[in-house]
Amino acid sequence: MNIVVFGAGGVGGYFGAKLVQAGFDVTFIARGAHLEAIKKNGLQIKSVQGDFTVHPKATDDLAKVGTPDLVILGVKSWQVTEVAEKLKPIIGKDTMVLPLQNGADNADKLRAVLPEHNALAGLCKIVSMVEAPGVIRHITFEPEIVFGEYNNEKTKRVKQLKSVFDEAGFKNTLSDDIHLDIWKKFLFICTISGIGALTRAVFGDMRSHEGIRKIIKDTADEMVSIANAKGVGLSPKDVAMVIGIIDQMDYNTTASMQRDVMEGKPSELENFNGYIVKQGKLLGIETPTNAFIYHCLLPQEEKARA
């Protein structure tokens, strides 16, 4: 299988490296110092599950790639539409494009630009980041990809893709309800990322503060209302599950969106709390907690994007 990994950051870098290690034909689309370091020294993975280094193909020129069987998107959710446009020239009729971004509507963004048949739906579970050019650090969580056809059909191609991921040796799940699984992940990441960006606090500090715990739960409750209005079956049990996960995570954990905001970078704010606020307006559902977080962070987001 000819695989392109667009974005060699914490997500694309880790899962792409595992595919390279298993012997698959993988090309990374990267840029800048990270690209040069990968070309010169390989891609180094520092992981709680064991360190390793691979020496993959890497380029910043899609014209050199050819037509892939699979494209794994390792970019941020706010970049999906732009990247989909760039992918158009290399996408064949049988190419699968798998989005792994945080957020609820990444597959929809792909389907708005590419032929709908090309777009799978998916998510990943991993806490990882670029530690230095050419170096990915995996901090916690057993890395997992959850994926499926947009309509949940168990097609031949997604069964084949599961075999590829199995051979690569990382946990993966061919979902029975990919949209529910996406929203469950979204529920977790959105409840903690925005308030983390506002407080500049690690998970341990936030979860031990009564007032912030209430904000986390209120954020999640509003998300459940939006999801259910859209036909996604989230429940209060899912809120309890998410809070339980936050309680179990390493004390010093931070979310990727939180880190981006703290570093003055463009973030996924629009795709997280902003998405919930906008969907609330469309659906006639009040989302005061998400709105507070969104509007408090929006001036810094606008400054970063300027």
UniProtKB/TrEMBL annotation:
Pathway: Cofactor biosynthesis; (R)-pantothenate biosynthesis; (R)-pantoate from 3-methyl-2-oxobutanoate: step 2/2. Keywords: NADP, Oxidoreductase, Pantothenate biosynthesis. It comes from Gaetbulibacter aestuarii. It catalyses: (R)-pantoate + NADP(+) = 2-dehydropantoate + NADPH + H(+). Belongs to the ketopantoate reductase family. This is 2-dehydropantoate 2-reductase. Residues 3-151 form the Ketopantoate reductase N-terminal domain. It comes from the Bacteria. Residues 177-297 form the Ketopantoate reductase C-terminal domain. NCBIfam families: apbA_panE. It holds the Pfam family ApbA. Catalyzes the NADPH-dependent reduction of ketopantoate into pantoic acid. Its EC number is 1.1.1.169. GO terms for molecular function: 2-dehydropantoate 2-reductase activity. The lineage of its organism: Bacteria, Pseudomonadati, Bacteroidota, Flavobacteriia, Flavobacteriales.
